[in-house]
Amino acid sequence: GPPGSSTSIRQVKLDKECELRVEVSPDSPLRLRLLTGSAEIFGTEIAPEIWLTFPPRLKFAVFTWYGATIEMDGTTETDYTADETPMISYVNVHAVLDARRHRAKASPSDSDASQGPRVIVVGPTDSGKSTLSRMLLSWAAKQGWKPTFVDLDIGQGSITIPGCIAATPIELPIDPVEGIPLDMPLVYFHGHVTPSVNVDLYKVLVKELAQILERQFTGNVESRAAGMVINTMGWIEGVGYELLLHAIDTFNATVVLVLGQEKLWSMLRDVLKNKANVDVVKLQKSGGVVSRNAKVRQKARAYRIREYFYGLANDLSPHSNIASFSDLFIYRVGGGPQAPRSALPAGAEPAADPTRLIPVSVNQDLLHLVLAVSFAKEPDEIISSNVAGFIWITDINFESKKITYLAPSAGNLPGKYLIMGSLTCLLMFCDS
Ligand code: ADP
After folding, report:
1. What digits encode the pLDDT tens for the residues 157-194?
2. Is the CB of 74 under 6 A from ligand 1?
3. What is the pTM of this model?
4. Is residue 133 within 6 Å of ligand 1 at its C-beta?
5. Alpha carbons 76 and 80: distance in angstroms, whole number
6. What are 258-277's pLDDT values in tens digits?
7. Is the CB of 234 inside a 6 Å radius of any atom of ligand 1?
């Protein structure tokens, strides 16, 4: 294998404030356990002695504040120890947030003062945004807070499948293997893996999500004081930058953490300098963050969708269902490419309304698409409604007018209306 990779059972001794960085091999899982000392994986402490099994391709670090011995069994793509990490600066941020949560908790009846920190993590792709979000959430949960995790990254989000934005309360430190529990996420379906396909729809959904959370916070002092951690996309130029500003504004972020880019930090600091209650903080990117090229990202998305239907360890069996064409009410949002307003004569409206609902009759193009099942009761509620889950169209029979689809569980769909985008489930991307 490549330098730094190894196969046998071996022990690694970590000095204080060092980490073991691991990329699990693409073909087989890796077992790992803590032998002595204490250690954490992205903010979650690992229990002594107990073997943890990490699935192929996972990239993670075992960090220790005071020293530890780790044992590994299995192949890795790479593993090495690093003594330079930005962990002290990250945990200092956590300490500041913790103090603000305590302050918020102390004034439950004041609508402004009772709001805990709303942290938004921004930076280019592969700067460690998701990882930092995760650490901040796990450290907070360890201290008994129940912060809300908001993931606005529709390309590589960690709450649900790609093509969505989502939020979920984090009540326990995040499991280093399983990730975010999928119990009760609040999910809005955009349908595409980049917002550029329909920027207006993305903004509308961000707004809907923010409004719902705002409403939930009003009735829940505990989650209000714990605040939010918001992860964002790595698209930080042009429209991507506008979308960051839109998210900061829509969620009333009070702390902006900028990872790994001086320019973005200085731009945000300048535009936000008049907002007295917003801190813009520059943080160092970890040397352990692994860059992923477009192909790796595409694969990661395919795996994520497969995981939704089949489970992380291929341990779930989705149900195959058959429905008549006439029983399915499928919609898509937005009509075709949007003409920029600037390209139109003065006063004219763009013809294709980006948030217009268009009914779709069953056609060959639906094959292999992943559709969202909306909670909407009426078609005109579709855009403002969150989704219950997803189905995957696996067969269309035009003679019998029947569609076969996979759903994570048996029984009736939790909603009548289905939303399509460009999201497909092509398992071939899962094979190397
Ligand atoms: P971003 O959200 O900015 O795109 P991520 O946080 O998802 O970046 O990090 C990219 C990849 O690097 C992920 O697979 C993550 O698990 C891995 N990673 C992050 N930090 C470390 C580290 N210190 N050691 C090893 N892998 C890491």
Report:
1. 899 999 999 999 999 999 999 999 776 799 999 999 99
2. no
3. 0.93
4. no
5. 10
6. 999 999 999 999 999 988 89
7. yes
